[in-house]
């Protein structure tokens, strides 16, 4: 191959010089032809950059956005596990909220009572305890504890800060918001029994409750344990003639010594 190109009028170099120039020119020409005729291994034309796998639609695959990391110095918030529904959590009908509390329930400390009528507050959880106060219609109070059954609830006595008593949550005049059983159990002492004894020769009854006290001659049936409260004494022998009224408190024992005719009796010790 003769790679030397001569120009008209040019002076040809010597034999040795011509050989060196010819070799350099041929090498440069060969390198240029090779770069133009073949692409480097591993490269593909731009038109074939998007490939499809068998069974796909041929739509170009979108490159996902890079995951953004929080700025330096920030903390990724974590979710409180206790606030998440657990396996087997119930779902309230109509709400679509898994793990939501049942209707009418609430967390501990969120049980409130609204009174639609007057209701006594007692010293302990039961009718055998003294009455210490009363709630009036329209009043609301938060319950602090319960009796272990959720029936009697411990509340702060109205107009007596720091003094606590008990109300019956099942009373028809009470509207309870929340679950009483979510409240802690409270400790309490037993009620002190109260009694009424009939020392007349007539059959006596206490109202309300229709508690019958037999005549003195039929003792011990003439003595009955009663709950604290106000009672009307009536003479059943005289067609329920009213005799008197009495107030019974814990630990007391009251004696009926007068019948419906106004006759007074002496009660043996």
Automatic annotation (TrEMBL):
Alphabetical UniProt keywords = Signal
| Keyword set includes Signal | yes
Sequence ranges assigned to domain SH3b in this UniProt record: 106-176
Please give the residue ranges the record annotates as the region Disordered.
46-105
Bias kind Low complexity: ranges? 46-78, 88-105
| Keyword check for Signal | yes
As given in the record, the signal peptide range reads 1-38
- Domain of life of the native organism: Bacteria
Q: What is this protein called?
A: Protein containg bacterial SH3 domain
Give the organism the record lists: Longilinea arvoryzae
Upper classification of the source organism reads: Bacteria, Bacillati, Chloroflexota, Anaerolineae, Anaerolineales
């Amino acid at each position: 191959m003769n790679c030397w190109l001569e120009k008209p009028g040019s002076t040809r170099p010597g034999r040795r010089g011509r050989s060196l120039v010819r070799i350099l020119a041929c090498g440069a020409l060969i390198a240029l032809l090779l770069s133009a005729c073949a692409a480097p291994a591993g490269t593909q034309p731009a038109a074939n950059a998007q490939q499809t796998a068998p069974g796909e639609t041929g739509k170009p695959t979108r490159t996902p956005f890079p995951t953004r990391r929080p700025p330096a110095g920030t903390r990724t918030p974590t979710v409180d596990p206790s606030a998440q529904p657990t396996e087997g959590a119930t779902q309230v009908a109509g709400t679509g909220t898994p793990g939501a509390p049942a209707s009418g329930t609430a967390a501990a400390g969120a049980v409130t009572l609204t009174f639609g009528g007057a209701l006594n507050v007692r010293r302990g959880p039961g009718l055998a305890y003294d009455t210490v106060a009363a709630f009036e219609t329209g009043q609301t109070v938060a319950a602090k504890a319960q009796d272990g059954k959720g029936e009697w609830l411990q509340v702060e006595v109205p107009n007596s800060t720091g003094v606590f008593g008990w109300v019956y949550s099942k009373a028809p005049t009470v509207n309870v918001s929340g679950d009483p059983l979510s409240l802690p159990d409270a400790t309490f002492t037993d009620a002190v029994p109260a009694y009424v004894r009939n020392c007349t020769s007539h059959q006596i009854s206490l109202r309300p409750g229709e508690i019958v006290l037999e005549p003195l001659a039929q003792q011990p049936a003439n003595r009955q344990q009663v709950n604290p409260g106000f009672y009307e004494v009536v003479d059943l022998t005289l067609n329920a003639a009213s005799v008197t009224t009495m107030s019974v408190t814990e630990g007391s024992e009251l004696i009926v010594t007068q019948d419906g005719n106004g006759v007074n009796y002496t009660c043996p010790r």
